[in-house]
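Figure S4 source data
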Amino acid sequence: MAKKTVTIDFAKLAGERAEFIKENPWLIPAGLAIQMIPLAMLIHGHVKKNIYKKKLQIEREKTKQLELQYQNDHPHGHHRHHSHRNGGYHNFDPTAPQQL
């Protein structure tokens, strides 16, 4: 089998293209609009990503500040007071008032 060579006449192709555009001038803005839609979506997504990234950084910083503030307010860590009387339970039954 012999190899076939393909020759393209670019001058003829450019002429046909120019003629087609002259016959259908509305294709220029329509083609540009179709190409701009993905670009606009890309830019919009990039801007939104940066906005949410900044919001996340702000919330993380707030969390860090609250943790530091809590640690400063409670320097000994978690310290709970437990009652050792009555097996660790408080008796909340109403009692009669005591006379002084």
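Figure S5 source data
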Amino acid sequence: MAFLSDIQESMKARRRTEAVEKIRHAIEKKSPLKTHWLMLAKMSLGLREVTLATECVDIMRQQTQRTVTSDIQRAGIYAEAGYLQRALATAEPLTLQQPDNPSIMHLCGTARAQLGDFSLADRYLRKVVGLAPHLGISWLTLASFTDFSEDIELFQELLDVADKYSEDDPINWMHYHYALGKALTDRERLEDAVKAYEKGAKLMAQQSKYKAAFDKRFVTDLQTYFSKQGMKAVPESRVKYNRAIAILGLPRSGTTLLGQILSNHSAVVGAGETGAFGQACAHLSPQDTMNFPAFMGRHGDAQAGIDMITETYQALTDVRYPGSGYVVDKSLNLNRLFGIWAKAVPQGKAIYIRRKPEHIAWSCYKTAFRGGADWSWSKESIQTYIENEISLLTHWEKCFPDRILTISYEDLVTKTNNVMNRVYEHIGLEPEKSSYSPKGSRNPVLTSSLGQVSADVNDESIKRAKAAEPIFNTVF
């Protein structure tokens, strides 16, 4: 359809505002797109316009005959938009109509797990792997919150379904291997676990677009152009937006745990990988992002340019997290975009959480990231990526010593109260009784840490990493 192609062209050309206005216009007119509203909803999600995405599928429901498939599609959009309760309200009644439909059960199980309702999630996902044992993603989600050292029966079931997979279905086969690796790790069969993770990674490594030399050069150039002198060319935003708290750090370094703890404070309305700031900077090419000061120097009105970035960031964040409370943004791309973020949110504070690099490497090695982590499919690229990020984060620490508080993961899980007191002092909040633990948080967890951040803070992950050191010290 020409209309959809037109929007795709706007997105490819980094004309985000144009693409959003075209989608809004279609919604206002309720254009007769019928089933094509689903594609428009997916485009809206790509733009982080979650309200537009849900409006698209709601109009699709009005314009098409309602079926179980269309309800699953609509619930899937709600879930991707972060409206998990709305997704469940749509999908769970379908489990009564079609109790043997794996797609329905997987959607409900995943949403329940993200909400921390592991009992119901377990029930749904066990049903899925019984009905469709070849669905590796269902095994992986189930494995993320299952302790296979105790559940021997499920571990045996996982072993028994290996012959259901084929290299002709690399995504499910990859997910199966990561689920198996998690189970073997739980059972302290670390050498076998490494082999499972390695098989899963090899299935995806051939599709990786990560270029280590390019990434190294990009990070080096970022530090060169975002010098203290270079950043003087970028004005601070005049938009008074002070809801954002940034969490900086590498994947698997404790960013989700810190976000969940903060989300239990009454002044914080949510925490997550919003992706909102990346969209606010979507008009920037990689070269413009890397040398943003020079880009702003060429801009006809640098002040208006930085103000627009802040306004877009605020609008996207406010839609996802309405209200006046703080929003903890732990989007992975904030590491790379922090120089711009600091100018766009001049009152904003950040927390950088460090962890032992070798423990991060091991944790990344055994994680099947949802997307955008091509660097994670080989040991060499994991090492390069970690070195680059640490170098960049150290640079930001030097540039913004008053804006960034640095803490360690090891201290966070062993000296929680002391560390969180420093965090709350840094961001200007009074600690509360409930704000020292992630337990009881109503904030959904959409990362691979969902099985690890629902209980009281503990140092089990440190103990597991130390136990694995003889293994991963030979791997890395």
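Residues 247 and 330 are 5 Å apart (CA to CA). The first strand starts at residue 244 and ends at 248.
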